[in-house]
Specification:
Layout (H helix, E strand, L loop, with lengths): L1 H13 L1 H22 L13 H12 L7 E7 L9 H15 L4 E5 L16 E8 L8 H16 L3 E6 L11 H18 L2 H24 L9 H30 L4 H28 L7 H32 L9 H10 L1 H11 L1 H16 L20 H13 L8 E4 L7 H10 L14 E4 L1
Antiparallel strand pairs: 1-3, 1-4, 2-3, 5-6
Helix pairs in contact: 1-2, 1-9, 1-10, 2-7, 2-10, 6-7, 7-8, 7-10, 8-9, 8-10, 9-10, 11-12
Length: 460
């Protein structure tokens, strides 16, 4: 492999203009393809084989009228009144009727209906109007959602406080924020301190960004052929930046060492690709296979995330083995360490790094203890980490779906935003009404009342 990589690096550095042009052309083609082919990301998370998914599938198959997206209009009475006051109740009933007349609304349920339970809070200050749409949650467009939100806003202006929530709103996808930008800045500062050269520090960042750009366009273009969740490109972005910088550093550091030893910049770039490039290929293959192996879990969105991360790794490897040697060729002798070759070898034994190594190895047991204490301190925030799929509780604090989510949690208590739906296959039982009554009352073990082929599946 080293010989093949050496030949590749030698070709890339000698044909550096062609390599750069090819990469620019590739980015243009991939970017255009992504713009034309992409169908957008999805935030529908399914876990086949789980009881909740079986319940949802059963409900959709047997009760298609309930298969569409569900919305919740959370209404809070004005201060000093309750939702059961005649005037307020009449306003809420009128609001329910107005929602029933909106496009794509299949049915609505008043919180005061005799067939609805638990839609009025214990203190009677808040009520929930259920709204059932005739399209799936993944197919709800902003145009469909707009009149639903507008109707709630109109009610708020009339004196009630109303917010629209529910599955008509998809979970807010992760976004690139200042935190990611700050991470890149920190990486640049560290590289500047390490190399003492702005050129040497900037090259790994440049190549990693190019690799990320290429992989992101591939991921978005792939939405033409499969559903990709919004978390997948975000994971690819983070992994692509991380491994892109690391892999470039493998080759760049070796390149600078070879120049310090007296090799020409072109030969140093070729040798660095042949030697450090082997480590890049091995590391990339290891990380890529590990990410693709997420598919072993059999969870579709995890599999997609793993493949997206692997695509980012492949992009980082490709850039490090082709474009990077070309850039090193353009940089020429400017990447040479400031010290001479002799001083370079001497620095290995007298520099700050040598001092650091001597310090940490003088008392190994103490070093191990200090490292473990440091890792423990950094792990303290993990004790308050809660893992879950995104929902309206992760949306913007000022969004209507987040305000609805918070109002329900405050008025109805913990768990109100995650009600359980229990589906029962009562075909084979001799007492279907009794089974349903027991499940509704939470009494006994209703599953044992269903004879052959019993199926009681809870789901969210």
């Amino acid at each position: 492999m080293s010989s093949a990589l050496y030949a590749l690096g030698q070709w890339a550095v000698r044909r550096r203009r062609l390599v750069v042009v090819l990469w620019l052309a590739l980015l243009v083609v991939l970017g255009g393809s992504a713009k034309v082919m992409q169908r957008g990301l999805t935030d529908v998370f399914t876990i086949p084989g789980t009881q909740s998914q079986q319940a949802a599938d059963s409900l959709s198959a047997r009760f298609p009228q309930f298969a569409g997206a569900s919305g919740q209009v959370v209404v809070t009475a004005p201060t000093g009144t309750t939702v059961t006051d005649p005037a307020v109740k009449a306003t809420i009933e009128d609001l329910t009727a107005r929602y029933a007349a909106l496009p794509h609304v299949r049915t609505t349920a008043s919180p005061f209906s005799e067939h609805v339970k638990g839609a009025v809070s214990a203190d009677s200050t808040t009520a929930i109007i259920a709204v059932q749409l005739d399209v799936d949650a993944a197919k709800v467009t902003p145009e469909m959602r707009a009149p639903l939100v507008a109707e709630a806003a109109r009610s708020t202006a009339a004196g009630l406080t109303a917010y629209m929530g529910g599955s008509v709103f998809m979970p807010s996808p992760p976004e690139v924020t200042m935190a990611e930008g700050l991470g890149v800045v920190v990486a640049l500062v560290v590289l500047l301190l390490t190399f003492g050269s702005a050129l040497a520090a900037g090259i790994p960042l440049l190549t990693s960004l190019i690799g990320v750009a290429a992989s992101m366009t591939v991921i978005f273009a792939a939405t033409r052929f499969t559903e990709i969740t919004s978390t997948a490109p975000f994971l690819g972005l983070m992994i692509g930046l991380a491994v892109g910088i690391d892999y470039a550093l493998f080759v760049l550091s070796r390149h600078r060492d070879l120049i310090a030893e007296g090799n020409s910049p072109e030969e140093a770039a070729a040798q660095a690709t042949g030697t450090a490039g082997s480590a890049v290929v091995f590391a990339g293959a290891t990380v890529g296979f590990a990410l693709v192996a997420l598919g072993v879990a059999g969870i579709p969105f995890l599999s997609v995330m793993g493949v997206a991360g692997a695509v980012a790794v492949v992009g980082a490897v490709a850039v490090s083995l082709t474009l990077l040697p070309a850039i090193l060729g353009y940089a020429g002798p400017r990447l040479a360490p400031k010290a001479t070759a002799e001083a370079h070898h001497a620095a290995r034994h007298t520099g700050w790094s040598a001092t650091w190594v001597r310090a940490v190895t003088r008392v190994p047991a103490l070093t191990v203890v200090l490292v473990l204490l440091g890792l423990g301190a950094m792990a303290v925030p993990a004790k308050d980490l809660h893992l879950a799929l995104p929902d309206n509780g992760t949306s913007s604090p000022t969004s209507t779906q987040r305000l609805a989510f918070d109002t329900i949690a405050r008025a109805f208590g913990p768990g109100a935003n995650a009600p359980l739906v229990v589906t029962l296959d009562i075909v084979s039982t001799t007492d279907p009404l009794g089974v349903v009554a027991e499940v509704s009352a939470g009494e006994g073990d209703a599953r044992h009342r269903v004879d052959h082929g019993r199926h009681a599946q809870p789901g969210r």
